[in-house]
Write a structure and sequence with these properties.
2 helices; 35% strand; 6-stranded antiparallel β-sheet; 201 residues; alpha+beta; 4-stranded antiparallel β-sheet; Immunoglobulin-like
Length: 201
């Protein structure tokens, strides 16, 4: 299945050549130092969505693959396509994340959120995560209505997973020493109290 014919048709009918593409991919992690065992997210967005584009243009679909330099450090656990798009990733084998503009209404917001990726921090270490578009695949890249050229959605971000430091329980000798200090302090306070006079004769 392919949607490649759609922008070609509209571009030809409108007589529009491919404009200079001024928008940029933005990968925004919820943290650059996630804790081992916890989840974190990366928002995949485009800024300057319609910069340099003709009036009436809009995003009609996008597609990209996810990249991970070391899945033993962080693993992809969930993908949520942004509400402005229909998640049709399963319809295009070979593409990890795919969204088609939801009708009705144009998709022209800026910045434009495409998807949110959720990862699990597995163990401490440095890992590079990101997205990649194979522009030889007609279902990948960022595609506009009035432009037959798909635009690259390739980028990376590096995160450093931190070790989870559990609070150690006090050892038995430490508890014993603490109890002894309290006992000694209590006896000293008791010895400083003035004695009551003995009225017995």
């Amino acid at each position: 299945m392919t949607r490649f014919i759609v922008p070609f048709l509209f571009a030809a009918l409108a007589g529009v050549s491919s404009p200079a593409f001024a928008s940029s991919l933005l990968l925004t992690p919820s943290t650059l130092a996630p804790i081992e065992g916890e989840s974190f997210t990366i928002d995949v967005s485009v800024i300057g969505t319609l910069a340099g584009r003709p009036a009436g243009d809009e995003v009609i679909f996008f597609g990209f693959d996810t990249t991970n330099s070391d899945e033993t450090i962080a693993s992809l656990s969930n993908v949520v396509v942004a509400p402005l798009f229909l998640d049709d990733s399963g319809a295009f084998p070979g593409t990890d994340v795919n969204g088609t503009a939801a009708l009705p209404g144009p998709v022209v917001s800026d910045p434009l959120l495409l998807a949110r990726l959720t990862f699990l921090a597995v163990k401490p270490g440095v890992v590079t995560l990101g997205t990649r578009s194979d522009l030889s695949d007609p279902n990948e890249g960022l595609q506009f209505l009035l432009d037959a050229t798909a635009h690259d959605l390739t980028g990376t971000v590096t995160v450093n997973v931190q070790a989870a430091h559990a609070v150690p329980e006090p050892s038995s000798p430490a508890l014993g020493a603490a109890g002894l200090v309290v006992l000694i302090a209590g006896r000293r306070l008791a010895s400083r109290r003035p004695r009551r006079p003995d009225h017995r004769r």
